[in-house]
Specification:
This protein has one domain (4-198): Maf protein (Alpha-Beta Complex). α4 packs across α5. The chain has a seven-stranded mixed sheet with strand order 2-1-3-4-5-6-7. By secondary structure, it is of the alpha/beta class. The radius of gyration is 17 Å and the shape is globular. β4 and β5 form a beta hairpin. The protein has helices at residues 15-25, 50-65, 99-109, 178-184, 186-198; strands spanning 7-10, 31-34, 69-78, 119-129, 138-148, 164-166, 171-172. The longest helix is centred in the N-terminal third of the chain and has 16 residues, at 50-65.
Length: 199
């Protein structure tokens, strides 16, 4: 796998992502460190796609930590909003926006839309670099399809989870136990694909 003693740094300051990824990778003997453990400042995400932004974050984390780096760039893609919030999901309502601010803005933009026009998907792109100059990054992606509710439900998860409803499961992402979410979510799908490529 090319991991330094089963260690890697997660190129993210998001504690929710760290929790979800650690939950799956630690049983495999992989210890994930937060970028905060290495005083890695967030980088400017100047890419136009999830892949580009994940690569930018992974390269910086690997360069500073000198460990393999895993970056996750994820977002909510709403068809009726021409793909927004997309790569801007974390800062949709502004640079310092909270999850509640972003959710409020999303609900305002979808206020007049009937449920059949509120389809959306979460998209996750994971990039693993064995070192900062790795010419062949391992890239894995996942999508989770659902729709956006008119009101929030559930207290698990983070981000848009309380608004994102999976019709097949009959629950929002924030209503699912972590194990089930890890199995069905966009991040869970991308992580499963990444693990398969590493084995």
């Amino acid at each position: 796998m090319g991991l330094d003693g089963g260690r890697l740094v997660l190129a993210s300051g998001n504690p929710g992502k760290l929790r979800e990824l650690s939950h799956v990778l630690e049983p495999l003997g992989i210890t994930i460190h937060s970028q905060a453990d290495f005083d890695i400042d967030p980088v400017e995400e100047t890419g136009l796609t999830f892949v580009e932004n994940a690569l930018i974050k992974a390269r910086e984390a690997a360069r500073v930590s000198r460990l393999p780096a895993l970056a996750d760039d994820s977002g909510l893609v709403v068809e009726a909003l021409n793909g927004r919030p997309g790569i801007h999901s974390a800062r949709y309502a502004g640079a310092q926006a909270s999850d509640a601010d972003n959710n409020r803005k999303l609900l305002e933009e979808l206020a007049d839309l009937p449920m059949e026009r509120r389809s959306a998907h979460f998209h996750c792109c994971l990039v693993l670099l064995r070192h900062a100059a790795d010419p062949s990054p391992i890239i894995a992606e996942g999508r989770w399809h659902g729709h956006i509710l008119e009101t929030a439900r559930g207290s698990n998860g983070f981000g848009y989870d309380p608004l994102f409803h999976d019709r097949q499961l009959g629950a929002t992402a924030a209503e699912l136990p972590m194990e089930e979410k890890a199995r069905v979510s966009h991040r869970g799908q991308a992580l499963a694909a990444l693990i398969e490529r590493l084995s």
